[in-house]
Amino acid sequence: MSRPHLVRRPLVAGNWKLHQTIGAARQLAREVRNALAGPRDVQVVLAPPFTALAAVAEVLEGSGIEVAAQDVWYADQGAFTGEISAPLLLDAGARHCIVGHSERRQLCGETDALVRRKVEALLAHGMRPIACVGETLEERNAGRTLDVVLRQVDAILGGLSLHAPDQLAVAYEPVWAIGTGRNALPADAQEVHAAVRRRAAEHLGEATAAGLRILYGGSVKPDNAAELLAQPDVDGALVGGASLSAASFVAIVRAAEGRIPERG
Ligand code: PGA
């Protein structure tokens, strides 16, 4: 834990949400790929809508940039109209998957228990969950931020065993910061991230928790990314709005590179 920046490779993920036709997704992926050509110390992941997964995976092949889905169902197949499974996501080229995003918790009624089943389904197929947690403004104002976030973390990590810390990432996304232009203060994000890591250590052990990436999400932009990513327990970013432009997304990736100290 004493050299956190060296043990954790930053992860920057672009969550395109319900945006981009297949053609537009291809174009955006191509722009990101071209701008990030060459060696990189940051893991970069793009999460297009389901319909564009295969096209984006094709564009990114060989680039080292990986593809994520934005959700998954817990069963592999069956009578689940409208759902998508980990095997089908793998087939489309996704290796990561966002789960428990607050938009799904709030708009689709996803519970902690459902999010947990999705995490297990992904891990069972060797996919890497990016599991989201975060409090609403009401909960923050009531002083319940850590209660809520740690309850969500318990549901995701309780009793889980990982072979390697990079099998899963946690994204702390305060609900009031998502899409509002109002990011968490870096010190407030750090406080929550540190608490998440302490709780992760209880579930996964110190060594795994020390290597676990905890991303911050919620109005991450090129002009606030560096100060958020400079926090010792902020290991990357889950980027919504700013990932829809290659220029702003790449600027955030560059800010994440800036947190890696010189070698030697
Ligand atoms: P935002 O979204 O960057 O547009 O706030 C982040 C997210 O919801 O993952």
Molecular structure report:
- This protein is α/β, with parallel strands linked by helices and 264 residues long.
- The chain has a single domain, classed as TIM Barrel (Alpha-Beta Barrel).
- It is 43% helix and 14% strand.
- An 8-stranded parallel beta barrel has the order 1-2-3-4-5-6-7-8, surrounded by 6 helices.
- Helix 6 runs parallel beside helix 8 and helix 8 runs parallel beside helix 9.
- The chain is globular, with a radius of gyration of 17 Å.
- The protein starts with a helix and ends in a 7-residue tail after the last helix.
- The N terminus is likely disordered.
- Bound molecules: 2-phosphoglycolic acid.
- 2-phosphoglycolic acid binds next to strand 8.
Any key phrases for this structure?
264 residues; alpha/beta; TIM Barrel; eight-stranded parallel barrel; 12 helices; 8 strands; globular; disordered N terminus; binds 2-phosphoglycolic acid
- Main beta-sheet annotation: 8 strands, parallel, barrel
CATH class division: Alpha Beta
The set of bound ligands, ions and cofactors reads: 2-phosphoglycolic acid
Strand content: 5-15%
Class per helix and strand makeup: alpha/beta
* CATH architecture descriptor: Alpha-Beta Barrel
Q: Going across the biggest sheet, name each strand in turn.
A: 1-2-3-4-5-6-7-8
Helical fraction:
40-55%
Total number of strands: 8
Distance between the termini: 19 Å
* Tally of individual helices: 12
Mean pLDDT: 95
The string of secondary-structure elements, in order, is HEHEHEHEHHEHHEHHEHEH
In terms of per-residue confidence, which ranges show pLDDT below 50 for 5 or more consecutive residues? Answer: 1-5
CATH topology label: TIM Barrel
Query: What best-fitting shape do the alpha-carbon axes yield?
Result: globular
Whole-number total of structural domains: 1
Evaluate the radius of gyration: 17 Å
